[in-house]
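Below sits my pick:
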Amino acid sequence: MKKAILIVEDDDDIRELVSHSLSREGFRVSEASAGAEALDSAKSDTPDLIILDLMLPDIDGLEVCKRLKADVSSKTIPIIMLTAKSEDTDIVVGLELGADDYITKPFSPRVLAARVKAVLRRKAKGTEGKGETIVVEDLVIDPSKYEVRLGQRPVELTRGEFEVLRFLASRRGLVFSRYQIVDAIHGEEYIVTDRAVDVQISGLRKKLGNYGKYIETVRGVGYRFRG
């Protein structure tokens, strides 16, 4: 069965280009030109992946991403941000909200198709090969359920935050640079800023409360989970 892709883009030419490119790659494509339309479409015909422009005429893309990730019916849909903005702030905020990847305009249709396939592969792979449940006192990291608990209390993490925590906690005591963390989680072709990793670490520390102290900064090198 063809994978369904929802393209959310208000520029007719760009939307047509993306639609044509992905259709040629064998995807089933639907389109939306505004944020509210995208939210309705995601509910009525759940796509396998959403390509989301940040600059939309009604609800901006970051807010659309936030609402999708807050809704149980759409929170697991992968999102690739498509934006003319290349500033770190926009990218960081999008990733913090739960977006899976981003591409800045102008872009190559081939690169976009490759990134779509890569994100879908990561989703299909799920938790395969990610190891057993990790327990550190009251902190429980369960890769099979993508679940983190502090005692009996579930901790709500974005997919990116979960992957960073799982990666570091499964290699306690070892120090990894930001780019080593990104490569291990997303692959070497994934482009990310230093600040994006820092923001995910900051978010983890805040959400883990007292257990945030286990994630240590090694100045000038990167991060480690205290052994």
Q: What stands out?
A: The helical segments are 12-24, 35-44, 61-70, 88-97, 109-125, 159-169, 178-186, 194-208. The mean pLDDT is 87. The domain at 4-125 is CATH 3.40.50.2300 (Rossmann fold).
